[in-house]
Amino acid sequence: MFRDTITDVFFDLDHTLWDFEKNSALTFEKILVKNEISIQLSDFLEVYIPANLAFWKLYREEKITKEELRYQRLKTVFDDLKYSLPDDIIHKMASDYIDNLSTYNHLFPHTVEILEYLRPNYRLHIITNGFHEVQNKKLKNAGISHYFEQVINSEMAGVKKPNPYIFKLALEKAGTYSQKSLMIGDSLEADIQGALAVGYKALHFNAHKEPKHHHCEMIDELIEIKSFL
Questions:
Q1: Per the record's keyword annotation, is Hydrolase included, yes or no (predicted)?
Q2: Which among 72, 101, 130 is the end of a domain?
């Protein structure tokens, strides 16, 4: 479908290649014990997962800072679970989380297979809203950093997806044009609508089991990319 027009493929990282929810759960399993927090992991994650997504949306919209995101997503969970913790412990847990997250390296099924398939014919890149120090560790520790020519993060760009500037910066860094570029990501708002607005083609990796939409084609497994490229 895109074979004759695409030269550069841009991936999101978290929730698209790197299995954020699985790696995050393993991280919390470790640091809850480390910090002697007597909450069941399943109870914690039930509140944390939607809270984290909500705070990331605020972060994308420039309504909170990185530091506020890291603190508030934990503070909210403990408050909702009626588990009292002093601020210094919450800040320590926020730090422990960042320190440990990239040590877990679960990827979505077929990640390496599809990168191997694409690399001979396309230049591959990353556009991520994640933090510079963490995202580079994730790529390296998961053994996939060598597949990507350019890794564009929101701290480098000074803005976050879906802001048009980060997509334009990615094109500039890659030395290509939007008409020759395909964006693959899990977020309809940040990845798909953001990329389409700048002229990229887009493919929505439906990691969250969202309903069908008219913006672009959707896939449920990364291996389905072979049908398009």
A1: yes
A2: 101
